[in-house]
Design goal:
The structure is a single chain. The protein has about 1000 residues and is an alpha/beta fold. The protein is about 35% helix and about 15% strand. The protein contains 31 helices and 32 strands. The strands form 9 sheets. The chain has an 8-stranded mixed sheet, with helices on both faces. Strand 8, helix 11 and strand 9 form a beta-alpha-beta unit. Helix 2 packs across helix 3, helix 24 runs antiparallel to helix 25 and helix 28 runs antiparallel to helix 29. The radius of gyration is 30 Å and the shape is globular. The N terminus and C terminus are likely disordered.
């Protein structure tokens, strides 16, 4: 036995974790006693080699208890059963799940995922498989679906699980569409080989005994018959000439991993139809009795038809004879070439897919790729490093979504414009590195050092530098970063202790002032606080491994993590588009990110730092601008609200087409995707039904403030005498206000369109449009007052001004805008002003029973409404809110610790409101409190609350107008046409 040590050792601790993990595999949901028993054995076995006292048993037990307590919310789905036959329950017992069982063991033993995560992959993939068609079903069928995950959250792991189960159930051909770059295709091929194939295709293209075993192939399972038509080499994409005559398609299952490249997809389809196709009456060929599953990774990228269309039919649908973009066409042709086909798109940013016209078709190429059969939402586990964990999240009291503070991992970049001027031409190249980038590089040196000291010596480390789109600038930047890195490596290797400007002293100061404090704040049990003396001995060996790679289409550099799997590599990746979608940067810890965009999907995909960071979450750093931090916070809120909307529509058993319409017409829908992907119609339809429209970005110029004051004064002057909200209140309420009075106010109100897409004139247009069918004809208007606020007089009415924080930063601050915190001005109880002190009568109850929100699919809520006549409207709204809370809690959609609502949910209030009624809230904000000019004292803003309605008629936006109003035409980069 080795000599006794007095304190735990990081290498020994890591070895003990491996031992304990292996022992725990046989337990599906291990108890604390079972975890402690396995950890005790692991400690004993490990210390036979490393010495007594080198393993901390309590830390070991705590680690596995935390792992077993990972929370994974259940998936939600919308489906359309037209043309679908239920099949899996009847066949489940007769299917031999060999591929899946092997993959499940791989996730446990090799990937070492927490048990709850593995269980969720099992449940979720079975749910998706059930919505596909039975591969043994006779005749022609075609299913199309979409799976929505989060960036870097495990979508690849999910679709590999689906592919395994598809092969087990009888699908004979699985085609994976893996991005547009060779690097991403090769990375996906490697993942497929590890999780499904079991052998390295560098050794042999087809199944042979001599092939090098990888992943599932190294486990103690019988070899399974499956072949690959592609290999893991950079140039290993589909080539018919490589396959020769060795083909048993239809007997042995085949896997193909291809790029989304028009000629490759065309060659694949042509080859398959030549080999296995039969003649059709129209002269073409179709493949019969070979069920095919197409998995489209990053389905919102390149697969979407972005063809610009100059002429449109009266109903807004493009004519059938317009040819789509090439990649979209080739995917549709491939699906159309098989009698039995299933298409499942995977993406973290589904907005472009949902904007696809569900009716779009082409006489030659078939239907477009709208996910008409199902849409599945996969909430990530709670150990996922999400956008709201990184940046925090704006709150929305109306939705019950609280503001969240992000982890203390972002660092502000305030010197970038001096180094890289805004709107620099494509020929611009930087001449030096900004100080913040030099600091980011030093932080990365410390991250590699700390991970080495924590026993993660063979783990990959990556740093991302993403600041420029153009390759010339990227090349120069990579050169500058390389020079800086070599300078630092030489100093660490050669610098004496008596050096005047000691780099080690500089790094120690950065470690102690930044990293030690951050580790304490993050408080992750897997991330221990380490003093400088504990990591310094790892500095030279860790830093000497680091190298710089330029990742773009012109560079020969390749991110080959697989080649260095045994030892781990440490890289600084400098690049642009190739780093912004799909490609996984293993062990990404430090990001220097300054790429400008205002589109949700672009920003989410460019953020490669989302994902899982076991054992080094506290070390991660994101260097970026205040503008981008603000946008990411808003994105986090928009994403949470879209998920809630999805969950609500899933509870109502809505179809994908109904959900697509809801998203496409939602005011926030204008911002959620690159609008050039929705430009085919030249128009966007927008509906405010069931929404809360808030003006949360305010211009503060004198002339704008005066115009808005006059708009409020004009409205109040047209109305009758108000009533107080309650006795002694200085909030004024008007009931029975005509819709046109509200529209005249909105026409006069000046509102710069902000992050939530508020546009007062478009809102007025929407209100006018609904009056033709008897909706939104009667309004309640309230002029709000705050207890304890600054006294003022508005339109002859005495009140107290409302205080709201100004969070304008960066360009918004420079433009003098007043940006409200959390994109919210509403005080939540105010939204129910029109329900206060009001009783429901029989007519109102019957009206509510016609709403889908209270349909037969929600029997408990419907029963409450049926018995609501004569009851206080607010009491009924509160009872329904509690029912929805209980339903969400039972389904696992909210945490068990979340408290019941103390007041009605905003969504419930809008469901309860009659479609003939609307609510306008006027908020006079205290200008002096946020340091704007004191005359006038107030800055006016407004909120409108719209009832849910199945018959509301959308209004139309010109796409280019939206771009112009949001200044997006100056920011968004054009897509490269195919």
């Amino acid at each position: 036995m080795n000599s006794i040590k007095s304190s735990p050792d990081s290498d020994a601790q890591e070895q003990a974790r491996e031992q304990a993990r292996t022992a725990l595999v046989r337990y599906r949901n291990p108890s604390i006693d079972e975890i402690r028993q396995c950890c005790s054995k692991a400690k004993r076995f490990t210390e036979e080699d490393t010495g007594e006292g080198t393993v901390d048993i309590e830390e070991l037990v705590k680690y596995f208890v935390e792992n077993s307590n990972v929370f994974v919310a259940p998936m939600q789905s919308l489906s359309d059963s037209r043309g679908h036959s239920d099949w899996l329950p009847a066949r489940r017992g007769e299917i031999s799940w060999k591929f899946w069982e092997r993959y499940q063991t791989f996730l446990q033993m090799i990937e070492q995922l927490p048990d709850p995560v593995i269980n969720s992959v099992d449940v979720r993939t079975e749910g998706i498989l059930e919505m596909l068609e039975d591969p043994l079903r006779a005749g022609q069928w075609d299913r199309r679906g979409l799976v929505v995950g989060s960036v870097q959250s495990g979508k690849t792991g999910n679709f590999l699980g689906l592919a395994c189960k598809a092969l087990d159930s009888g699908y004979k051909l699985v085609i994976i569409l893996a991005g547009i770059h060779n690097s991403l295709r090769a990375q996906t091929q490697i993942r497929m080989e590890e999780g499904l194939l079991g052998y390295n295709t560098d050794s042999s293209l087809f199944f042979e005994e001599a092939s090098t075993k990888v992943g599932v192939g190294t486990l103690s399972f019988p070899e399974l018959p499956v072949n690959s038509m592609t290999s893991r080499a950079e140039n290993g994409d589909f080539r018919a000439g490589n396959l020769g005559t060795v083909m048993h398609l239809g007997e042995t299952p085949f896997i193909v991993v291809v790029k989304k490249h028009a000629s490759i997809l065309n060659n694949l389809r042509t080859w398959l139809t030549i080999k296995k196709g039969v003649e059709k009456p129209d002269g073409g060929k179709i493949v019969r009795d070979i069920p095919m599953l197409v998995i489209d990774d990053e389905a919102d990228h390149s697969s979407i038809n972005t063809k610009k269309i100059s002429r449109i039919s009266a109903d807004g649908v493009a004519p059938e004879d317009i040819n789509p973009t090439k990649i979209n066409q080739r995917i549709r042709e491939l699906l159309d070439a098989f009698e039995k086909s299933a298409y499942v798109g995977y993406t973290a940013t589904p907005f472009a897919n949902i904007f696809v016209d569900p009716k779009a078709s082409h006489g030659k190429f078939g239907d477009d790729l709208f996910p008409r059969s199902f849409i599945v939402s996969l909430p990530p586990p709670d150990n996922y490093f999400s956008v709201d964990k990184v940046f925090g999240r704006d709150g929305d009291p109306d939705s019950g979504l609280e503001e969240r503070k992000g982890l203390p991992l972002t660092r502000l970049v305030d010197d970038f414009d001096n180094f890289f001027p805004p709107k620099a031409p494509s020929s611009f190249v930087p001449s030096e590195l900004p100080g913040t980038l030099k600091k980011a590089i030093r932080s990365y040196l410390l991250v590699c050092t700390a991970r080495h000291a924590r026993g993660q010596k063979t783990k990959h480390n990556s740093m991302l530098v993403h600041v420029a789109r153009f390759v010339e600038a990227q090349g120069k930047l990579a050169e500058l970063v390389t020079t800086e890195l070599l300078f630092l490596q030489r100093r660490i290797a050669n610098e004496g202790e008596d050096a005047t400007l000691s780099l080690r002293k500089e790094l120690r100061e950065l470690w102690e002032l930044d990293f030690v404090e951050t580790t304490r704040a993050v408080a992750d049990p897997a991330c221990p606080v380490m003093e400088w003396e504990e990591i310094e001995r790892s500095l030279h060996p860790a830093v000497s491994k680091i190298r710089v790679l330029e990742i773009n289409g012109t560079s020969a550099d390749v991110l080959d993590y697989e080649k260095h799997k045994a030892t781990g590599i440490s890289v600084i990746a400098v690049g642009g588009d190739k780093l912004s979608r799909g490609l996984t940067l293993e062990g990404l810890s430090v990001s220097y990110y300054m790429r400008v965009s205002k589109m949700y999907d672009s920003l989410l995909q460019m953020g490669r730092w989302f994902g899982y960071r076991p054992g080094y979450l506290d070390l991660c750093r994101i260097y970026t601008s205040s503008d981008l931090i603000a946008w990411y916070r808003h994105i986090a809120l928009a994403e949470a609200e879209l998920r809630r909307e999805f969950e609500r529509m899933a509870a109502l058993k809505a179809t994908p087409e109904e959900y697509g319409l809801r998203v496409r017409t939602h005011p926030d829908g204008m911002l959620v995707t690159a609008l050039n992907k929705a430009r085919a119609s030249k128009r966007l339809q927008v509906s405010y039904e069931g929404t809360l429209a808030q003006c949360v970005v305010l211009a503060t110029r004198d002339e704008v403030r005066k115009r808005n004051d006059q708009a409020v004064t004009g409205l109040v002057g047209r109305l009758e005498q108000p009533r107080p909200r309650k006795k002694g209140s200085s909030t004024y309420v008007w009931s029975g206000v005509a819709a046109e009075d509200v529209c005249v106010f909105l026409d006069a109100f000046d509102s710069p369109m902000g992050t939530n897409g508020f546009d007062s004139r478009r809102v007025a247009q929407f209100v006018r449009r609904q009056q033709n069918q008897g909706e939104l004809v009667e309004w309640t208007v309230a002029l709000l007052s705050a207890n304890g606020g600054t006294p003022d007089t508005i339109a002859g009415l005495d009140l107290n001004l409302v205080r709201r924080k100004n969070v304008a930063e960066g360009s918004d601050k420079a433009r003098g805008l007043y940006v409200l915190s959390n994109s919210n001005v509403l005080n939540p109880p105010d939204q129910a002003i029109d329900l206060e002190g009001v009783q429901l009568d029989a007519v109102w109850v019957q009206h509510l029973l016609t709403k889908r929100a209270f349909g037969v699919d929600v029997p408990l809520e419907r029963e409450v409404i049926e018995q609501a006549a004569g009851r206080d409207a607010l009491d009924v709204a509160q009872q329904i809110s509690l029912l929805r809370y209980a339903s969400d809690k039972k389904a696992g959609r909210i945490r068990a610790t979340q408290q019941p609502p103390e007041r009605p949910f905003g969504a419930v209030v809008r469901d309860m409101r009659r479609t003939s009624h609307g609510l306008l809230l006027l908020y006079p904000l205290d200008a002096v409190a946020v340091e704007f000019a004191a005359e006038p004292k107030s800055i006016m803003t407004c909120v409108l609350s719209f009832p849910t309605s199945a018959t509301a008629v959308p209004i139309e936006y010109q796409v280019n107008e939206v771009y112009r109003q949001l200044h997006l035409d100056q920011l968004e980069e054009p897509e490269i046409d195919e």
